[in-house]
Amino acid sequence: MMGVSHAATGLFTGAMVGYWIGQRPEFMFVCATVGAGAALLPDLDEPRSRVGRSLGAVTELVSGKLRGASRQVYRRTATEVELRKPQDGGHRHLTHTVPACLAFGLVALVLSLLPLGAALLVLSMSALGLGTAALKLKKDWGTQKQRRQVVLGVSIFLAMYAYWGADAAPPAWLLGLTVFVGALTHVLGDWLTKSGVPLAWPFVVHGKRWWMFRSPVAFRTEDRSPVEAGIRVASLAGIPLVMLLSTPMPPPA
User: Fold this and answer.
1) Which residues have C-beta within 8 Å of that of residue 14, sequence separation ≥ 6?
2) Tens digits of per-residue pLDDT, 106-158?
3) Nearest to 30 by CA among 152, 132, 175
4) Which domain holds residue 164?
5) SS3 (DSSP) at 217
6) pTM reported for the whole predicted model
7) Domain count across the chain
């Protein structure tokens, strides 16, 4: 799926983690922004992706490093069957595995335990998600530099708002869980597409360690895809709907 679609689904799953597990409105707000950014992390293996370009030189550098690491892991772990017709091993390989999602969550957990680490996590994930969305905006919404300045300002505000007081800060384990769920949401979203993802890695399936699993109703991903548009709308509309359905009804008078 495209970056904006991933961000929308991550916003939904992050909000649900904060709402159902965190059990506090402010946790839901923070987890939603973290989930939106976390749902873009797997695509950091592609420097030309929207998330790879979202924060300029910073994300481009990270993307290049992750792409190189993915290629190395592919070459070292691919089976003999796969090496007969080797793939590039960069995009949609290492960062699109369940172990990678767990690693993203673990890094977030450790970072959140450090002084100011949780605030930094919220800042970076919010900037990542909003930065990707800003690339989708039309050119008449200001210059690219101006959009980045707005993204940075909003992200700083979110971090300050969420962590101004101790009562507003979700525990580190909840932030780590939100990042894991957000990244996994991305992987499952790409499972819905015809390209597929290596869900079973590092286990061997049909002689291949990088066997690409695809949904039985897989679709092609593109900016104007009606399926993706439906997923984005459903994700955004689903947050208040789930909250409404999950709120206990007051007892009759």
Assistant:
1) 31, 32, 33, 34, 35, 36, 38, 39, 178, 181, 182
2) 999 999 888 888 888 988 888 887 777 666 655 556 666 676 777 777 777 77
3) 175
4) 3-246
5) coil
6) 0.86
7) 1
